[in-house]
Give the backbone structure.
Amino acid sequence: KQEVTQIPAALSVPEGENLVLNCSFTDSAIYNLQWFRQDPGKGLTSLLLIQSSQREQTSGRLNASLDKSSGRSTLYIAASQPGDSATYLCAVIYSGAGSYQLTFGKGTKLSVIP
Amino acid sequence: DTAVSQTPKYLVTQMGNDKSIKCEQNLGHDTMYWYKQDSKKFLKIMFSYNNKELIINETVPNRFSPKSPDKAHLNLHINSLELGDSAVYFCASSQYLGLAGAGNEQFFGPGTRLTVL
């Protein structure tokens, strides 16, 4: 059974710092991995999608990497801003029990202090 | 224009009642999903429909029944509501079910907060 773990559960940094969020998964036979952000009381916003054949994706100040063999992904945020404060979720899609499965981590709550 | 919309945004009801949550996507996607986010903020997939056909049905009580009248809509009906059903329910869609394909990101609705009293 696929398990997704995100470390740390919460992170507080001063504005302007670069930071890394970690995601690990137990079954490396994934199709793709997606990073989301969730603002309090709001829905999810897709940030980056990395296919299993890719090693990284970039969007603005965000860079996500994927190492399937080690079961890890990182989300790098450059020059953090107070507007980046949110919960960041990692999700993996894989094949299991004859159908597609999707599993989320529990998220990392990021606070960027002005 | 809202890509994935859900109604209502908030739903407060008594135990034992039957309620529905509606979801619509205007992205022209083939696949739609329902997720449940519990009080610990953990997201778990409930159902997935591709072109009105049920694809994923996780271990969910049969009091929950998805209905897809067309591929742009996936409504969630819940019968005999229980206290433990209180959660935030998210609808999502993706272009197709080819999960190994390029760009098949999932787009989420704003969520429906269900409170069962």
Observations:
- The longest strand of chain A covers residues 86-96.
- DSSP finds no helices and eleven strands in chain A.
- Chain A has a mean pLDDT of 90.
